[in-house]
Amino acid sequence: MENENKTENKNEVKIEHKPEHKEAKKVKLNVLHFVALALGLALIASLLVFGKSCPISLTGFSSANAIGTKTVDFINTNLIPEGQGKVELVNATLENGMYKIATKYNGNIIFVYASPDGKLLFTSPINMSQTKPKEKEQSIPKTDKPNVKLFVMSFCPYGQQAEKAILPVLELLKDKIDFELHFIVDVQDNNVLSLHGDYEAKEDMRQACIIKNYGISKWIEYIKLFDNNCTKVNVDSCWSESAKSVGIDTSKIESCVTEQGIELMKKEQELTDNYGVQGSPTLLINDVNYKGARTPDAYKTAICSGFTTEPSECSTNLSNSGTAASGQC
């Protein structure tokens, strides 16, 4: 997998200021993302030296915050090159017998883990209770109306690539399929965290609110403009201009984000957890993970294979321009 965060009042969306959680989510190869990955690379290098874990001498600090603080101090002292900025502590929680520590480095959210005694630092735990199925092609079960779920991060370039590829299929098959768009987020203490940062988390909530209030067809109109014109630099004005140009009431969407955004994202997180979704994009057809090429025609062919009886639209040839399924955020 190639690799490319939100706080306030009860009725306000809380967004821990983690500027690039989504951009760095798994791989956006610009200078900012590359620098953001330096922490991860440094940790990995340290793991190689120390044998999959780093001794960090945190004995005597039993609370989550104390462990988190000492872990960040250790990282800044031992793993971050001088002049390359500082790691900040976002939060620390005890999960499954170890501390999960959310850190922020150059605007990107990076998770690390510490042993309960505070002696070892890990970049990523492996859940041994989850068995990975053997890699083999899973046939897509047939139904009268295939269900298609696309999981993305709004600023993940691979997710946007998948959106652009699937749009012609949605316009071709229309209501003959049940299409759902979902977002990959992490909600902690009513803070919505996203790989590339708070601007991505906000956009995830906006798009969820557009779908909730206007439906998928209006989202399609919106996303055509958004994916082609909006960046993290101009998103605050660009999303609004895009929405207004297709007849979306931006005030209604902003109110939805403020009043319902967190709850919507909690449901998104629950769904991604239930399906074991880990990267953007992930496409499920009748709950089977599609791993083929990301082109309109490839998507059409895979989705049409989920029909009990294929409609005539399935014989339509769509573009084969796109890429193989390789990159993810």
Topology readout:
Blueprint: H1 31-50, E1 54-55, H2 64-78, E2 88-95, E3 98-105, E4 108-114, E5 120-122, E6 147-152, H3 157-173, E7 178-183, E8 186-188, E9 191-193, H4 198-214, H5 216-229, H6 235-245, H7 250-275, E10 282-285, E11 288-290, H8 296-304
Parallel strand pairs: 6-7
Antiparallel strand pairs: 1-5, 2-3, 3-4, 4-5, 6-10, 8-9, 10-11
Helix pairs in contact: 3-5, 3-8, 4-5, 4-7, 5-6
What's this entry about, in short?
The chain is of the alpha+beta class.
Word description of this protein:
It is a single chain. The chain is α+β, with helices and mostly antiparallel strands and about 325 residues long. It folds into 2 domains: about 30-120, no CATH class; about 145-315, Glutaredoxin (3-Layer(aba) Sandwich), CATH 3.40.30.10. It contains 8 helices and 11 strands. The protein has helices spanning about 30-50, 65-80, 155-175, 200-215, 215-230, 235-245, 250-275, 295-305, and strands at about 55, 90-95, 100-105, 110-115, 120, 145-150, 180-185, 185-190, 190-195, 280-285, 290. Helix 3 runs antiparallel to helix 5 and helix 4 crosses helix 7. The radius of gyration is 21 Å and the shape is globular. The termini are close together. Mean pLDDT is about 80; it is low at about 1-40 and about 40-60.
Defining traits:
Glutaredoxin; four-stranded mixed beta sheet; 329 residues; 2 domains; alpha+beta; disordered N terminus
Tell me about the biggest sheet? 5 strands, antiparallel
Looking at CATH, which topology of the largest domain would you report? Glutaredoxin
Helix/sheet category: alpha+beta
Number of strands: 11
Overall mean confidence score, pLDDT: 80
Tell me the count of domains: 2
The radius of gyration computed from the alpha-carbon positions, rounded to a whole number of angstroms, is 21 Å
Categorize the overall geometry.
globular
Can you tell me the CATH class of the largest domain? Alpha Beta
Number of helices: 8
Helix content: 25-40%
Q: In which order are the strands of the major sheet placed?
A: 1-5-4-3-2
- Element-by-element helix/strand order: HEHEEEEEHEEEHHHHEEH
The portion of residues forming beta strands comes to: 15-25%
Low-confidence region ranges: 1-39, 41-61
Q: Tell me what the CATH architecture of the largest domain is.
A: 3-Layer(aba) Sandwich
Relevant CATH superfamily of the largest domain: Glutaredoxin
